């Protein structure tokens, strides 16, 4: 479901401050006593508890290989292996997926944007990040062949998914790198990678942020890379592995723990088992084996192997989304996520069991 193409002229505000990447090697403890806590267990061999809710409804955007772990866990039967019956609804944009959780249509979201766990802190239904599948932006700003410089870009339309998302952050960062003002372009909400590529192919927009794992596709289409954001390792803009409402995590701590474990296991396979991951991606994306293998190779260094994060990772998200909703600056970045579920997986030996790293 593509987001409506409505033009939004963005007003330039102060330069976005890049979030400092904290050097902490392990996730911080849960920020408050009120935060949900993973169920207690004495195991140290990686055995997971029985789920306290078996049937789970999950929403997820899925338009690129870096988001594949959520689907891979389903295709490989990992959710079922740990006692869960997960029904997955696929969306074109992260905002649609998180909206489905807020509306009650789904219990959890995979691959959701980090903006909603911040903005929701100011509401009666706060969200909670349980794991982070990607900590950085890996897009490039791709443009029509006649857009080869900042001067060429000025006054043009740039496609994103929805406001406040990673794609929006990518545009802001690209403009900063090109020494341009946000008011120099008009942002159009279009949808995921595929929708943005289609919009460029049709000539509806001049440029769009597209994941760098699509580089060959973009050049084959005759599109031009204006700036490669994947080379900027200083930007932290987390994307959720698993996120849910705080009330869900409190009510079903075992199920929340198992979802985090299943996604971590799938992420570990995605990073370390090229053959399996490429075979499954080829099935899902309906592409040939060679293209699937190339796509997986490109994203293996992009995704977050531990799925851990530091709270300061949310700072750039907060400042980006403040352009649309200034009140988000009142949200506590330490309340937006709960590290205790991943820490529990370390404590019970699950990380060791599947060979996942326990540091960032």
Please give the structural blueprint.
Blueprint: E1 7-9, E2 55-61, H1 69-75, H2 78-81, E3 85-91, H3 94-102, E4 108-110, H4 115-119, E5 127-134, E6 139-143, H5 150-153, E7 157-160, H6 166-177, E8 186-189, H7 193-202, E9 207-211, H8 215-220, E10 224-228, E11 239-245, H9 246-251, H10 253-272, H11 274-285, H12 289-299, H13 314-321, H14 340-347, H15 350-354
Parallel strand pairs: 2-3, 2-4, 7-8
Antiparallel strand pairs: 1-8, 4-11, 5-11, 6-9, 6-10
Helix pairs in contact: 1-10, 10-11, 10-14, 11-12
Q: How would you briefly describe this protein structure?
A:
With 360 residues, this protein is an alpha/beta fold. It is 35% helix and 16% strand. The chain has two domains: 55-136 and 241-354, 3-Layer(aba) Sandwich (D-Maltodextrin-Binding Protein, domain 2); 137-231, D-Maltodextrin-Binding Protein, domain 2.
């Amino acid at each position: 479901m593509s987001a409506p193409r409505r033009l939004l002229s963005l007003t330039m505000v102060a330069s976005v401050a890049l979030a400092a990447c904290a050097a902490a090697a392990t996730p911080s403890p849960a920020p408050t006593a009120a935060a949900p806590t993973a169920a207690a267990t004495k195991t140290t061999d990686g055995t997971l508890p029985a789920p306290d809710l078996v049937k789970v409804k999950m929403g997820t955007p899925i338009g690129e290989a870096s988001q594949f772990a959520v689907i891979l866990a389903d295709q490989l039967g990992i959710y079922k292996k740990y006692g869960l019956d997960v029904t997955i609804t696929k969306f074109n944009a992260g905002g649609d997926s998180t909206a489905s959780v807020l509306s009650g249509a789904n219990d959890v979201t995979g691959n959701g944007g980090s903006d909603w766990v911040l903005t929701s802190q100011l509401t009666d239904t706060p969200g909670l990040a349980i794991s982070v599948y990607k900590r950085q932006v890996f897009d490039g700003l791709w443009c029509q062949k006649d857009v080869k410089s900042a001067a060429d870009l000025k006054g043009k339309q740039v496609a994103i998914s929805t406001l406040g998302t990673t794609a929006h952050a990518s545009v802001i960062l690209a403009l900063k790198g090109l020494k341009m003002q946000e008011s120099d372009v008009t942002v159009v909400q279009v949808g995921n990678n595929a929708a943005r590529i289609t919009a460029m192919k049709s000539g509806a927009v001049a440029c769009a942020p597209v994941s760098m794992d699509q580089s060959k596709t973009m050049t084959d289409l005759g599109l031009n890379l204006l700036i490669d954001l994947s080379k900027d390792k200083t930007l932290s803009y987390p994307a959720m592995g698993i996120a849910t409402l705080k009330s869900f995590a409190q009510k079903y701590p075992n199920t929340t723990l198992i979802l985090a474990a299943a996604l971590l296991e799938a992420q570990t396979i995605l990073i370390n088992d090229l053959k399996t991951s490429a075979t499954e991606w080829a099935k899902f994306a309906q592409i040939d084996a060679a293209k699937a293998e190339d796509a997986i190779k490109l994203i293996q260094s992009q995704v977050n192997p531990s799925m851990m994060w530091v709270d300061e990772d949310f700072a750039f998200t907060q400042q980006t989304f403040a352009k649309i909703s200034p009140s988000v600056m009142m949200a506590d970045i330490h309340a937006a996520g709960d590290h205790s579920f991943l820490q529990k997986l370390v404590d019970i030996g699950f990380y060791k069991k599947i060979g996942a790293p326990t540091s960032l």
